[in-house]
Amino acid sequence: MSTTNSASRLGLTTSQAAAHLGVSLSTVRRWSDLGHLRGYRTPGGQRRFSVEQLDDFVRGLDGGGGTAAGPQGRDAR
């Protein structure tokens, strides 16, 4: 429907990104604020993420490398 087309054109909302990643909304916000998840902001200030960006982030976590290291990727020493 038009909502799906609109979401694919504009990107996923924070809630949709959270569902896609299987994490909470606050986790997506935190990862975005820390720069782990790259997206963009609409003129109204809402975060948007492409499915490709989210999938790249997950691949970076699974591979243990890349620039998309999440909190577990930090050296705690």
UniProtKB/TrEMBL annotation:
Domain Helix-turn-helix: start-end pairs: 12-59
CDD domains attached to this UniProt entry: HTH_MerR-trunc
Database matches in Gene3D superfamilies: 1.10.1660.10
Leader peptide range in chain numbering: none
Example GO molecular function: DNA binding
InterPro entries assigned: DNA-bd_dom_put_sf, HTH_17, SinI_DNA-bd
Any Pfam family matching the protein: HTH_17
The protein, known as: Helix-turn-helix domain-containing protein
Native species: Paraconexibacter algicola
